[in-house]
Amino acid sequence: MKIFTTAFFLSCAATAGWAEDKWLSIPQVPQMPAATEAGTAEINGINMYYATYGDAGGTPVLLIHGGLAHGDVWATQVADLSQDHRVIVADTRGHGRSTNDGSPYSYALLSQDYLALLDHLGVDQVHLVGWSDGANIGYSISTTNPDRLASHFAHAGNVTLDGIDPSVETNEVFGTYVGMMAQDYAAMSPTPDGFEAFLGGVATMWGTEKTGGLEALSSITVPTLVVQSVHDEAILMAHSQAIADAIPGAKLLVLEDVSHFASFQDPGAYTRAIRDFIDQ
Question: 53, 96, 237, 266: least surrounded by Cβ within 10 Å?
């Protein structure tokens, strides 16, 4: 995947919000509810922002956002799930309010950050809900530290580069998303003028082939639900099916009338899908 330019994506933001179909626009998310705890954890050479919600017992739910985003995109899911679960969100290294130490982005490194965060919080195991890069982080943890995951709700991840739809590079809805995240980055980041370099670093990770590919998934023992949207701009349906086929016992859930940004476009149905899986 090539390195995108901010100018192209910001221009898309003005053109993709008119459509009636859910999958052709990205609604703004509401404000996050009040956190039970929020702060930064000094781990792996960075300051990683995190927040927790709710105080229910049982296995907590860890929500990991997609590339370029931040933990606040989960506001609707947090408000619902925190009623009867402890919910953890964070900003991935270099994203949102978290810093980076100059290290190149890789899913292995981001996975180590999240495991260190769980150690910092004294959490042994979580239900992981991962969207896009969050799902890829989940696949990495599933193969290296499966004991830390009670389950993995894996939406719109990929484990090979041929799982990416090449048309995403000029897709206006995806461009709108990047423009939205550029604005959020400027408002939230410790380096508010650094979005171009940040985007380039993340895009390089997106374009790097992942170690092991589909074959590595055959050893996964974590209960996994692979989630794919009918109108996903970035991930091919056949690739999600191949992931579900490769992970022992995994199932594929197909979300209708939404795209890569399903949690924005139909947050109620998205949260119900999470509940249906993790509360089994």
Answer: 237
